[in-house]
Predict the 3D structure of the following.
Amino acid sequence: MRVRVDGKQCQGHGVCYMTAPDVFAPREEDGHAYVLHEEVGPELEAAARDGAEACPERAITVE
Ligand code: SF4
């Protein structure tokens, strides 16, 4: 599974990395999210989807 954060849509609310800290992390400078590993293995797919669904800006895509 591939996971991406749209840096323009992300507002840094932090819900994704609070929901799925093994998939998402905050950038130090502004708290906006990035994906720890673009390719997410099966063991973290559910967490990645939960994080994406929790994002109020719909900035995360999983495919
Ligand atoms: S929940 Fe969405 S808006 Fe908030 S930090 Fe994560 S990607 Fe950005």
Observations:
- The longest helix spans residues 45-54.
- Residues 3-62 form a domain with the Alpha-Beta Plaits fold (CATH 3.30.70.20).
